[in-house]
Amino acid sequence: MPVWHEATKELRRRGKVEVVAIVQDQHPDRDRLFLQWKQVDWPVLADPLNILNLETVPITIAVDESGIVRFTELPMSAAKTIEQTFVDQKYDRRDAPVVPKPDLRALARAPRRTAADAIAYGDAVAVWGGAVHVDEAIDAYRQAVRLDAQNAIGHFRLGCALRERYDCAARRSTDFQEAVAQWDRAVELEPNRYIYRRRSQQYGPRLEAPAALFDWIPTARAEVKARGETPLPLIVEPGESEFDSPAPNAVPLRKSSESDPQGRLRRDQGEFIAMETTVVPLAVKPSEQARVHATFRPNLERKAHWNNSVDPLTIWLNLPQGWSVDRAPIVIPNVAEEVSQETRSAQFQIRAPANAHAGQVKIGGYATYYVCEDVGGVCVYRRRDIEISMSIR
Predict the structure, then answer these.
(1) Contact residues for 10 (Cβ-Cβ < 8 A; gap 6+)
(2) pLDDT digits over 251-298, tens only?
(3) Are residues 144 and 264 in the same domain?
(4) What is the C-alpha separation between 244 and 75, in angstroms, rounded?
(5) Which residues lie below 8 Å from residue 58, measured CB to CB, with a gap of 6+?
(6) Are 121 and 112 in contact (CB under 8 A)?
(7) Do 252 and 384 have their domain in common?
(8) pTM (2 decimals)?
(9) CB of 253 within 8 A of CB of 319?
(10) Number of structural domains, the chain?
(11) 3-state secondary structure 214-234
(12) pLDDT tens for each residue of 16-69
């Protein structure tokens, strides 16, 4: 992107070309921060569903004044000659077709007999209806994969819509895990699609040669602040799996260090803290690792909040024989404020033993934390039981 930005600056100043960026990331607000950092002033369109149906990125497309595509998949080297090879060329002008905004009510009433029909409706409500219609998009994509279980596009977009709902107030605790399952299914059906594969890997265990997906964010924020600007906010902060930091060596859990080995602490069934876990990928081979995302959300209806003046939230796992985790226990540090109501998340990697047998595995454990109810209300020490389900294949 920086290459094309530099190559087209003067052309844009002279009014000879317009440039638009289209990003396929699940969280396009991160791309906006990147463009702010690099001082790129292009308009940015978000395509997290991959409606362009691209296999790989980046891809550069040249479109003339009539809306006709003249070049696709332009290499970076083409940036040096784009003025001569495209901008200054004379093309016959034509009346470009105007695509109207779809009538969502009419589309909702129309029969959807094929997976393509259902996907088309899901795309329409996802793009034109916005976040308030995410449930309708999910239902449409579900219908698509029911009509055609081999439809990779339907599985991928269903995963994207589920993750979108997970990131908003309408979330359901199972949305993230189901999104992962749908992305994995899309990769099974079309393993050569980079975008499908990368979406699942983004939340999974570190690769042997991990990609620095968002390592630039701290630098970007610091440099934007140094310019006297306010960095654009992110709806969802990147998690541990999205940074290129070295994975610690897995070590067996030492059960003797548990805070509640006898199970005597009172359980929180969700009255104070809601919890969900997501495993990426859901199935591993012997000796492989999976990444677990554990998320804890205070119950705002009860004005529940963290008590940060005592021990932090800690996760303890009861691993089967031969299994290991990258650190034990797993600790989510307290924040500086005495009390707070933020969502807390932890990511850790679990490794299956080399002699693991195929089948379903359930790993038990629990989290301990101090939580208070209402302002000046009672503060308690609670345990939340955890069960992590995954498969050996």
Answers:
(1) none
(2) 443 343 577 888 888 899 999 999 999 999 999 999 999 999 999 999
(3) no
(4) 27
(5) 1
(6) yes
(7) yes
(8) 0.78
(9) yes
(10) 2
(11) CCCHHHHHHHHHHCCCCCCCC
(12) 999 998 998 999 999 999 999 999 888 889 999 999 988 777 788 999 988 889
